[in-house]
């Protein structure tokens, strides 16, 4: 039985998700973040306000996603042979659906998102990745990407799915399993405060029984002073309690920390207290996300009015060194963000010496060599993330291109720093 093209509609996608979920099928249980007050955070600031979605809304999205998946199968797109040529075929298929809707005089459900004239150009750059409304083509490409990634993982967002009682999570996961039986891992974002204060241990165990495998927590810092400074809305004790309860419930615990968040004033307390909290939680994964101050955030305002002094890249690396050296638990550190200068990856305690050696090799460089190292590292990160350089970055590098390559022998420290800041302002956090 062939699928009626007029019945195919877009569904809501979680554009903000962990990097390990880049190829996951995603469904929104909430829209945006109910806290949304962290000084450093540039996301969830556009589009619709926060709202909890009803289970029937979620089920409708699951039904729409399944219909798209069925249509891809019907058309032989993404089956067995996973090729990026499938995206071209998706575009052709989407045009056929749009044409059918135009012929039937049906209005497209997803209007183009409007960009505020007051939005800083630096944030406009990220809008294509932080979409609030998914188009039909977005929905098709999302399903195809999931297929190409193996079709085994699912992320349920947006910001804190632990606000839902176990019955809701169970019903959502059950419905996803029925429609997408190949999925083997379910993950969510959560707030440690929700795990500590809102959910009982029995609730968390019920999540695990329902099929939830992992919770991603953004703890950012273990210092109460820093958490208060950036208005995180949680304490170090709540970080510890929430993380421990999550692990006791049998859920994998993945946490994100933000070197640099203490700025110049609080950097040592930030590093040592964060290491202490991580030791107490003993999470399965620790993911490093070095601070990038984004325009039009409260932290950007605080920096410009003198309330916050940004840490240098060398200082951020020293913070990471303290964290690696001081953590006393069996855990894995991952540097899977383009915001990080160094790729520090390994399992503690086994790989501690090797990670410290890599950090110390950078710290032993001269000031000039540190700048050049940073420039080359940031260029690699940008090219790896986006597949090439933008016009403004290429123009900034123009005077230093010689014989088809880059020659930085005559570049000033100021020019290096300016180009680094330009590149960092465009790197996805």
Describe the protein's topology.
Elements: E1 25-28, E2 30-31, E3 51-52, H1 55-74, H2 85-103, H3 121-124, H4 136-148, E4 153-157, H5 166-179, E5 185-190, H6 192-198, H7 201-210, E6 212-220, H8 224-229, H9 236-248, E7 252-257, H10 267-281, E8 285-288, H11 298-304, H12 313-326, E9 331-334, E10 346-348, H13 352-363, H14 367-386, H15 391-397, E11 401-402, E12 405-406, H16 413-424
Helix pairs in contact: 1-4, 1-5, 2-4, 5-7, 6-9, 9-10, 10-12, 12-13, 14-16
Please summarize what this structure is:
The chain is built from 16 helices and 12 strands. It is α/β, with parallel strands linked by helices and 429 residues long.
Question: How is this structure best described in words?
Answer:
The chain has 3 domains: 1-27 and 40-110 and 120-155, no CATH class; 191-364, Aldolase class I (TIM Barrel); 371-424, no CATH class. It is of the alpha/beta class. It is globular. It has 16 helices and 12 strands. The strands form 3 sheets. An 8-stranded mixed beta sheet has the order 1-4-5-6-7-8-9-10. Strands 2-3 form a two-stranded antiparallel ribbon. The chain has helices at 55-74, 85-103, 121-124, 136-148, 166-179, 192-198, 201-210, 224-229, 236-248, 267-281, 298-304, 313-326, 352-363, 367-386, 391-397, 413-424, and strands spanning 25-28, 30-31, 51-52, 153-157, 185-190, 212-220, 252-257, 285-288, 331-334, 346-348, 401-402, 405-406. The relative contact order is 0.10.
